[in-house]
Sequence to fold (742 residues):
Amino acid sequence: MSISAPEATKQGSAPELRPISMQEAVGYPAVDCAHQASIDQYVVLKNERLFLLVTPHGDIRPPGACGLGLFQDDTRVLSDYRLSYAGTPPALLSSQAAQMYSAQVDLAITDRDFGGHAWDPKNSIHIRRQLVLDGYLTERVTLTSYLPLPVEFWVKLSAGCDFADIFEVRGWKRTERGQFFAPRVSADSLVFSYRGRGGVLMESAVRFSGAPTKIDAHGAEWHFVLKPGEPHTLLWEVHAETQGGAVGRFVGGGLHEKRTALAHVYEKWQSECTQWVSDVAEFDAALERAVVDLRALYIESDGTPVISAGIPWYSTVFGRDSIITSLQTLSLNPRIARDTLRYLARYQGQTEDSFTEEQPGRILHELRRGEMARAGEIPHTPYYGTVDATPLWLVLLHETWRWTGDEALVRELLPNAERALKWINDYGDLDGDGFVEYARTSDKGLVNQGWKDSEDGVPFPDGRLPEPPIALVEVQGYVYDAKRRMSDLYRALGSTDRADAMRLEAEELRRKIIDRFWLEDLGTFALALDGKKRPLPTPTTNAGHLLWSRVPTADQAKKLSEQLLGPEMFSGWGIRTLSAALPVYNPMSYHDGSVWPHDNSIVGLGLALNGYGRCALPILSALYDASIGLDYHRLPELYCGMERAAGITPVLYPVSCSPQAWASGSLFMLLQAITGLRPDASGGVLHIRDPHLPQFLTELTLLGVHVGGSRVSLHYSRKRQRTVATLVEVEGDPLQVIIELS
Fold:
């Protein structure tokens, strides 16, 4: 056994930290993006602050591969993690991660190197890798030999840690790093240490249940005899601490007990959610996967639970993403909305800061906790460069009240709401023309600050990019909707004069949007106005968001619905972000022709709110069909916008996040649209207006929908083109259910 640099000179003393270069520490570049793969080729686990991406074999291979790793608090705490074995390279039998906190990988080694026939090798040694995430990573490896005689065998674990910031892992080039220290090796542990540029000591430790045969700074090795039919087990844990303090000791405990405890957490979550039960098992599976993924994406940030955006790049709080996910899932579980409202109010802007783009009353865009944020290399502490999160927060406050009737929540957050309204009027309107625009003030901030925030996400039809300040069309709709809804809240709270004034502001803005953005010849609204107030005549889904905000006239809504579902926008897998008829169209781009489930869900609900509920049916059907061909029926962040062809699944976008919160919420918003759910919790009423079921469903039951203090169960059935809704049960507070069929 080779052991060097003991962790501590005596019990309880501080460990010795010996500085070394990065090359000495990890022996390879910090990030190897030449080997980046699509996330659908990874095994993904997530629980609280931790998430893990490994190959189907269970490895982080090659070391430092872009995207792969064990991550905590925006830091990669394991960048090399490879098992190798005696005999031939193992064949992959199965790789499964049905639960977000647990995975199982089954491998096989042939008998060729153990006396078998070289021309006819047989699978004879079974290897099962079981991985569980709770507060740390636990792995158990079980080897079982089906050879007739005992064989000498070995297993080697290679491990390393580059402590790369998540921005680095995605491709950000850094000119400076902090200080690496020599790995500390003891008889049963290997500890990696790094002091970041912000001064925080980060550590990651692999701790073994019992001492390996060999252990050094690069990993561990076991040598043993495999006897026929007698399982041999290896067990270890990976602990990390990225905010200072010592990493944990080996905890132990059975994997079954860990999985059982985690399963209870998810069972409790599911019991709190509406249950959607249809006559199509695969559709139910897609909905159940979305419910599970939403729970998995919850994190605890500063002691507060809140939904994060997605894996791998966005396992943190995003203002816009969290708000839209909350809006999508009010019919599923209003807890997400309440948590989001309170968390974002806590971080609402207080001062002016051009680097972080903070302004009084502004809702944050993104909060990061990695080294680059702590060292001031990026402005995400938090970063406020979003033009739409502030009005959307106001929309969410009102919509949550409609579903919950929680007047106490409204009164609690009313000061935040008034600061948000003040931001819209004082800071959002950069040039005093009545529209809310953006122009970044931070050279490390986002060029585009709406939901299509890639650098080319807001183009003219020919691909030219507008000069700021830019007034996005959907943002004007959000502001109109926010003011209209705040008028309702003021009225409900007894402030009639403020309600009337706010309603007048909203209606004046609506008239201006129609006047300046509507393009009669194209049957749609302009994507944006540029800095010279020229419209961008680019047909996009952004215009469809105005349907959700209820801006268009009846005639405009009709034309817009036809345009959105026409062949240039609708791919068969959903509505493209941008018309395929334009020179700038690229179905493989992030925002200029791809299909985003969340975007489709907003458009679908908007169609229903304008009396075109049947037009939402092909959108729901398209997203459901897309989910069938994907692992675990999980909708990703986005996929490519190529035309649908028979027998072909959607073309995946290579770095799409999966799971992604607002993709997981998409089916629920579309179900709200087609089932006609229109709550008025404060009035003790639930309206069901013009419900429809798609062709792939004939029965749908909703069990335990939260409306105020009630939980409502409803049944929908379709015969040919007619859908009938029936009240099954109301539990809790009395509730009037009014069903209006077309």
